[in-house]
Amino acid sequence: MRAVLMTTVFATLSLAALPAAADQLRMVALSFPPLIHDDGGKPTGIAYEIVTEAMRKAGHTVSVEIMPWARALDTVKEGGADAVFTAYKTPEREQFLNYSTEVLVPQVVSFFVAKDSPVAFDGDLAKLSAYRIGVVNQISYGSVIDDAIKAGVLPNVEKSNDSDSNVKKLLSGRFDVMPSNRYVAQYFLKQQGALDQVKELKPEAQTLPSYIAFTKARDTSKLKADFDAGVAAMKASGDYQRILDKHAR
Description:
It is a single chain. By secondary structure, the protein is an alpha/beta fold. The chain folds into two domains: 23-105 and 209-248, Periplasmic binding protein-like II (D-Maltodextrin-Binding Protein, domain 2, 3-Layer(aba) Sandwich), CATH 3.40.190.10; 107-207, D-Maltodextrin-Binding Protein, domain 2 (3-Layer(aba) Sandwich). Helices cover 37% and strands 25% of the residues. It has helices at residues 2-17, 46-56, 69-77, 143-150, 163-172, 182-191, 221-237, 239-248, and strands at residues 23-29, 37-39, 42-44, 60-66, 83-87, 97-99, 105-114, 133-136, 157-160, 178-181, 198-200, 206-215. Helix 2 (46-56) packs across helix 7. The relative contact order is 0.20.
């Protein structure tokens, strides 16, 4: 009996020493190279690597489905996914999303125009009111541009389903001005061999943080805490910066 008891205690202690079984998390994202995109059937990119590594540290595995942004937001809002990234923080989204405290990736948003375009920008958005503005449907460009569109300061807006389509429309002259994350604009222009056909207007429209955001359809506070702890550890160890540097090459 004593031998059986000792064996049971030993087995219990051994199991306690093992890491908890990994949770399989489902996340959704917009194809947003170089932050996240499909590479031969597998997701990759700056944000993807940061998210998966941060969650791995807490014993989670992550599957990410890339889809149009409007659908991604609806999916996480309804609880069909645990989280969405990369997301700017807006009051509307905070109604159904639980944002990370740690910044996922800081992003610079600028206006891009054709190389020979006469459009100029001095920081006054009202001076762009006569031009056609191309945006991606339900993408937030930060409070400066979002508020200008809502207030009618930028009244001539044409929407695309994704960043690739938006860049192609700019190159074909479908609209005059494209607000974009600098990383994203440069990636798609490079893919199309068109870096020399477009220029970035200065000054930048806004520099703002982007986050991972968890569904509020159920309690995801532990997942948020796990992510924050994982990213903080990555920043402290230098792993976070190494991922940024790798994709900048």
